[in-house]
Amino acid sequence: MGTAARPGFDTDILRQGIEGHTPETLLSLYADDAEIRLVNRNATPSNPKVLHGRDEIGEMLSDVYSRDMTHKLEGCVVQGDRAAYSESCQYSDGMRVLSESMVTLRDGKISEQIIVEAWDE
Prior knowledge:
alpha+beta, 22% helix, 47% strand, disordered N terminus
């Protein structure tokens, strides 16, 4: 009896979505019941912003990737059912943002994600 291959996380689609400003492409990487916990200057570690499901995640991605800024995937590591990646961003006025993500994968899709952002201020 053979073993079925588990689907892998598609880092090419991740890069295309981030650098191509295509939230629909990025959303395709999330499971239907995915959850994101976001920590940044407005959402502290003890009170993170939590997004549930593809609808809420899609709204956030549409907002972020519609802004006048550049996005670059700086690196991505995938190990089993976990992945981590860095994204650097720059607004047209020069303000920079660095985002670090740790994700849990299920069947090649993101099921949980923790995002920590740091902003120029």
